[in-house]
Amino acid sequence: MTQFLHVDGVDPVEIETVAYTVEDGVAWVSLNRPDKRNCMSPRLNRQMMRVLDELEFREDVGVLVLTGEGTAWTAGMDLKEYFRETEAQGLKGTRGAQRESYGWWRRLRWYQKPTIAMVNGWCFGGGYGPLFACDLAFAAEEAQFGLSEINWGILPGGGAAKVATELTNFRNAMYHSLMGENVDGRKAAEWGFVNEALPLDRLKDRVTEVAKVLLTKNPVALKATKDAIRRVREMTYDNAEDFLVRAQEAANSFDNEGRKEGIKQFIDDKSYKPGLGAYDKTKQKA
């Protein structure tokens, strides 16, 4: 059942900009402004941070999926509410709106649980921020991806240009940014913006399948791995090697029983093979 996170003193319109439901260990979080193609407004950005806070350490949540209500994932920033109305307040208004949006994208990048972007429709401009923030991404073949900023006279800011160069090669990123042309989900997968593209009617089933696999993994190892992959991309090999040794030591000390059980089931019980699946967490000591 779809839920809204009610907060005393917060406008109901703001509360309803983000919807969510928790089913079988998966939190399905939706940007909920379908009439605006889920454009991100200051109100939505504030509410999204509250929802992320609410779900991050819930014991019944092991994976978070971010999607959009209606026919869009998000068409980017709301040009009226995010740009015109905040710019009318001067630099203070602009900086405040930036902190709210960049803040939840940053929070999502380092989230405690694995995150999946389920791009069911339009993904434009500012939408590249949460797209990159999610650990995995799957899109409908019919989805449209675009950096349209050049078409209305600005550069792809808010991290969008950085995301493009992180996820695809230089020539693709340059063409995508300069031309202002959309690409569909298939091309987005080819370029590396998403892991896979599927027909829309198969998208949720595939994301559910992936989420169920993630739920079988050791949660401490998942968090350590998420962080490691993001961190080492910016390091030299030697620095990455040292970082990973320390990260492994920290993970071992925090969840030593999980590691011991995984090794026991492989070496002693011979009940699974790490290359073919995860160990049975239900046999792990509390």
Automatic annotation (TrEMBL):
| GO molecular function terms listed in the Swiss-Prot or TrEMBL record | feruloyl-CoA hydratase/lyase activity
Swiss-Prot/TrEMBL keywords? Lyase
Q: What class of enzyme is it?
A: lyase
InterPro entries xrefs: ClpP/crotonase-like_dom_sf, Enoyl-CoA_hydra/iso, Enoyl-CoA_Hydratase/Isomerase
Q: Does the keyword Lyase apply?
A: yes
Q: Give an example GO biological process.
A: isoprenoid catabolic process
State whether keyword Lyase applies.
Answer: yes
Please state the span of the N-terminal signal peptide per the UniProt entry: none
Pfam families given in the database record = ECH_1
Entry EC number(s): 4.1.2.61, 4.2.1.101
Question: In which family does this protein belong, per the annotation?
Answer: Belongs to the enoyl-CoA hydratase/isomerase family.
Task: Name it.
Answer: Trans-feruloyl-CoA hydratase/vanillin synthase
